[in-house]
Design brief:
Blueprint: E1 5-6, H1 27-40, E2 45-47, E3 57-61, E4 72-84, E5 88-94, E6 97-106, E7 109-115, E8 121-127, H2 128-141, H3 152-167, E9 176-177, H4 179-184
Parallel strand pairs: 1-9
Antiparallel strand pairs: 2-3, 3-4, 4-7, 5-6, 7-8
Length: about 180
């Protein structure tokens, strides 16, 4: 089932998420729905807060490309243990912040600990684009957005666009839930 993606301005996107356990209700169904939602929106990652749930869960699928092999995984209760390397810039976007893309600098390597969907624990080093997507989604479960990682001038320049997103004055080709529209009802 395709879930609505929570838009910029919703308080759930600013919450540090809580860990879950094996008994989290309907976890397999939630993961399947997150994959379907992400693919429907043409994303490469999706975190639980983006579908309104303040839990430590995200999915990543970098897709096929010529530069790096496909990287597809489920991350439960993830903890980034280390980020290394010289930061590099890349234009990022976010399904919760449609129509805005900005250059974000991140380190190219991460060491991450997490559980997969079968509750197997992993500690893994990841590099390149996959590391970037992991860091972006990890930020979501820490209550941070990519717009906080851009310089102050750029943040000021996109403020009006962010306000329009909060009000629902954007038209992505996927279902969204907008915070200011909810308050009017």
């Amino acid at each position: 089932m395709k879930l609505p993606i929570v838009a910029y301005g919703d308080p759930v996107l600013k919450k540090v998420c809580t860990p879950i356990d094996k008994d989290y209700p309907n976890l397999s169904e939630l993961i399947a729905n997150m994959w379907e939602t992400m693919y429907n929106a043409s994303g490469v990652g999706l975190a639980a807060p983006q579908v309104g749930l303040p839990i430590r869960l995200f999915v990543v699928d970098t897709g096929e490309n010529d530069e790096e092999p496909r990287y597809k995984k489920v991350f439960i209760n993830a903890q980034i243990l280390e980020e290394t390397g010289e930061p590099w810039g890349f234009t990022e976007g976010c399904l919760s912040i449609p129509e805005i893309r900005e250059e974000v600098f991140r380190k190219p390597n991460v060491l991450i600990s997490y559980y997969d969907e079968n509750w197997q624990q992993h500690e893994e080093e990841v590099s390149g684009f996959a590391a970037r997507v992991i860091q972006h989604e990890y930020d979501h479960i820490e209550g941070k957005l990519f717009t906080e990682k851009i310089n102050m001038l750029r943040r000021q320049l996109i403020k009006g666009k962010l306000d329009k997103i909060t009000k629902g004055e954007v038209h992505p080709d996927y279902k969204m839930k907008f915070p200011r529209q909810q308050r009017r009802k």
